[in-house]
Amino acid sequence: MKPKAKERMPTRIQKKNRAAILEAALNVFSAHGFRGATVDQIAAEAGLSKPNLLYYFPSKEAIHAALLSGLLDTWLDPLRALDENGDPLEEILAYVRRKLQMSKELPRESRLFANELVQGAPRIHDTLSSDLKALVDEKAALLERWMDQGRIARVHPYHLIFSIWSLTQHYADFDVQVRAVLGDEDPFEGAGPFIDTVYRKLLAP
């Protein structure tokens, strides 16, 4: 039996081109959604020919899958950081701040995820039903324990998490609407203190 050939490590140029493709795809998918995006658009945005792009990714689906895979880990990290040994209210507020900061710093990623969900999550439904659900179940159980201990007010733990997602991600997913209403005001300057006050009042034991 022949020994397996070692996989070649990607060259610096290959790494650079792959990163350029994913960056370009993030722009295109977040602006047009999966259905509206084309390989030609992504190649043009990346400054590569279509055949060159297809050397790295065989299809639009493959590019989209690579983006979503990396995004889901990033998106779940703030919830994973909710620490059962910390002060409950401060842990929740820290989670809210991390999510709002992500909306400020990663708006394209947020819109990419939102577009996928609006279409029924055909490419990540299994992950939502497994990895995401398992993590949310774990953190909802932690919130319930804190409520049972009288350390935060009793609210529906799942809807609490959903509300945090909605309030924070709104500033990325509906950025155009928010800025049209606020004009020159930076939406994140007012959003942080407002959302902090909402959850302090809601969860104070």
Automatic annotation (TrEMBL):
The keyword DNA-binding applies. Keywords: DNA-binding. PROSITE patterns: HTH_TETR_2 (PS50977). Residues 38-57 bind DNA. GO terms for molecular function: DNA-binding transcription factor activity; transcription cis-regulatory region binding. Pfam families: TetR_C_3, TetR_N. Residues 15-75 form the HTH tetR-type domain. It comes from the Bacteria. One of its GO terms (biological process) is negative regulation of DNA-templated transcription. This is TetR family transcriptional regulator.
